[in-house]
Predict the structure of PorZ N-terminal beta-propeller domain-containing protein.
Amino acid sequence: MKKLSIISLGILASVQFANAQVISSKKWSDIFSYNNVIVMKEDQGKIIAAAENGLFYYTISTGEITKLSKANGLHEVGITAFDYNPQNKIGLVGYQNGSLDVVTPDGVTYIVDIPIATGYNGSKKINHISITGDKAVISVGYGVSIFDLKKKEFNDSAFFLSGVYQASNEATIVNNKVYSVTDTGLKSHELNTTFPVYSTWTTEMPGAFTQIASEPVLSFSSATTAYVYNNGVATPLSQTFGKVKDLVVNSNSIIVTDQARIYSFNTNGTFTGAVSLGEECNTAMTVGGKMYGGTILSGIKNEANNTFKPDGPYFNNAYKINLYGENQLLVSSGGRDARFNGPLANPKNPSFYYFNGMQWIYPSYFIGKTQAFNILDAVANPSSPDEVYATNYTFGGQGIYKMKYNANSKDFDFTKYYDLAAPNAYVRRPVGLTYDDQNNLIATIAFMDTGSIAIAPYDKAADNFIVKDLGILSNGIQKALYYENLLWVPMPRTNNFLVYDYKKTPTNVSDDTVYLLNQSSGFAANSNGTVSVAIDKAGDAWIGSDSGLRILSNAVSAIKEPNPSVKPIIIEQNNLGEELFRDSQILQIEVDAGDYKWISIDGGGVYYMSSDGQRTIKHFTKENSPLPTNSITDIKVDRKTGKVYFVTYNGIVTYQGDVADVTSNFGNVLVYPNPVVYSNFKGKVTIKGLAEKTNIRIADVAGNVVHSAVARGGYYEWDLNNQRGARVASGIYFVLMTNEDGSDKATAKIAVVN
């Protein structure tokens, strides 16, 4: 039976972080896809596999799977290269952005200062890594660099410049000599003083070559032919290939992974057999005489058609997420570009993913289809949760799909396609789907035939959508937020915001009322559109535009006034008033159970704000946290557990927040860390499980009150200072708490060791 352990990679004794900022903690976890295995290495019956966003370690004898990602040790996503030396237990991870992680039994070290050739403006992607002893040769778009694994620093680099920079596709070290395959030939040079001088390199064999491997024999390949190289002679293997994906050499075999099959040869180049694993592989290897493939879509796969990987979505692409019931998720994986215009180009033909509480499911209906898909939203019917509607935004196949979850097959059956009566391939593109409190389904439609936008309620009796053109020249529209019998709809391509009153009769579109906020209502003059909206516990609408944040106070009543007005939040910076998030594009706003705000800024990460927006509690970026990118396309909070989901085009991560299920009474009050030992922890002490409004007094053992405060939103952080602003002495402190009306009480103790 497969066992999954979400802890540090098995090659680590512990996850420590040397010479690098610690960006992960137990509060974070990943929801990454580990399907696309790029590289595999073996260590005593165990396979270490590198996927796009992390490593996983599969023990063949026990079935145990352990994963290591940015959520618990690594420092980046977008893995493009990996190698591992079983002798010294060191792994080296290369990324799309040119950085490296050195993974050792003592921890993970982040390397960001890879040498870059002067004048080189191309990709920094790490193409390939090959470890020999304590040295690694790193292949990049401008040549090769030698990395010292013991010192964790770079030695010499050779920049392949002859008129233009030439990439090293792959390279390896054999007997103190570097061999590199390039688009113009097999190149070589001794590791000596002239190594950095490209003009002193030797072209062993001209041609366009892509793969290379060594130990015990040197082998390399073009797209269709593989060779054994010995004493300056390249002997072609007896088979030709459709396209060589990878080349692996071990003590007794050469393994060539082709698009369709995996071929085996002995080290003399004699063909010994071929297998097919039923799908395309990136790489392959033998362990214990059995073949294992690193697939594109199924993780590690063996000849018996068994797959091994951490469970996760089909791909890492994610755009929007919806939460249901006990840990059930629907994730749409499409996207838009050019200011919320066309469907984001994606060769993976993105659909939606479903997590049923136990495993991730990708509808087989969407696999292998020539029909283009770009699903922007997927929602479950509250009255029949196995019924899912999804919006396809792509050109030529735009429309809404109805799917039915089949619990027996753990798959989705196609039920119906609604084409929205689109007259051509470029109009009537559905964006979002929203259910109201009576389970009425309403879609938002962009790019109507008239250049307008539309609202499309679902008519249950007719089993169709009624498309109502709103006559508002905008083209762009977002998913609607339902609140108090109204639809609150951002318009990302004009400086407007729509509120739609359908009079509780969604299929009767003749009596509806449209309210429109625009620049005269208070939006920034330089704004080109509104992007996001959330409504907090006070009933205020927080509206994010591409040029800042605006608040519509008492939104339901204000929107019906003759001249409703939105206002910015003004905060104090250096004794001067400053508009919060001025000129920033607000991608998403989410309100948690304590009325705190999670706000994502395009390119700026995520801010966790106080309920009034005056105070930044946390600011997460890809540099200081496991976020895969600084542009978060969606945020959802599970108010019952406090878990926060951050959705990006590069994958999903979660953060265990401190605010959960906040009511007027106390929950399970927890203080951490406790005891507080100054030598180990210098931050604030968190008290969570509080009432929505909590009066707090903290006293010493003599009964003297050293600190008092009023906490709002279910949790509080104490900086361990007394009323005079000085740190309290070592000792035991009692936390005395009452809710707002004094009807509920709670106590706790904190031990402080300075």
